[in-house]
Design a protein that fits this description.
The chain is an all-alpha fold. About 75% of the residues lie in helices and about 0% in strands. It contains nine helices and no strands. It is elongated.
């Protein structure tokens, strides 16, 4: 949920006007809007490149994943991995647009450990994959934009690592 939506819902729930602190939060959210949109656009425009670079990096770090018997062995399994990488990248763009980690939490992390465990996908491997996505993504950004985007990747990494 965006900062604006959250402020409105909180104020309405409490039958009050937004506080000056909440209004300042909205002002800050709006000031960073162009940057967040630029980052989201960079990620969207470069999804294939990012996923390709991230997967290449991951296969170098963990060649056992694509070796016979590995979770990404064969075209079908590899395609499923790449699909997931793109999905996480998209979740990060949603959160950047909202200026909040709620889309990651509500759409992407609820039940993720259970799902991967049920599919016999090693969660530490997914954590490493997100790190590779982060590295490939941040290389395409200015230092300032990378600093804004990095916490969203880190949030997923931390949540999957817990």
């Amino acid at each position: 949920m965006s900062v604006v939506s959250q402020v409105i819902l909180n104020a309405d729930d409490e039958l009050r006007y937004p506080t000056s602190g909440e209004l300042k939060g909205i002002e800050n959210f709006l000031k960073t809007g162009n940057q967040r949109m630029r980052i989201a656009q960079t990620l969207a425009d470069n999804e294939k490149k990012i996923v390709s670079q991230a997967s290449s990096s991951l296969w170098k770090i963990r060649p056992d994943f694509i070796a016979k018997g590995g979770n990404a062995y064969g075209q079908k399994q590899r395609a499923l991995c790449l699909r997931d990488y793109g999905w996480y990248l998209r979740l990060i763009t949603y959160s950047l647009i909202a200026g909040d980690k709620d889309p990651i939490e509500n759409i992407g992390l609820i039940g993720v450990r259970e799902m991967y465990n049920a599919l016999d996908v090693p969660v530490p491997g997914m954590v490493e994959a997100i790190r590779c996505l982060k590295d490939a993504s941040l290389k395409l950004m200015s230092e300032e934009d990378a600093a804004e985007a990095a916490p969203y990747f880190d949030y997923i990494i931390q949540a999957m690592s817990s």
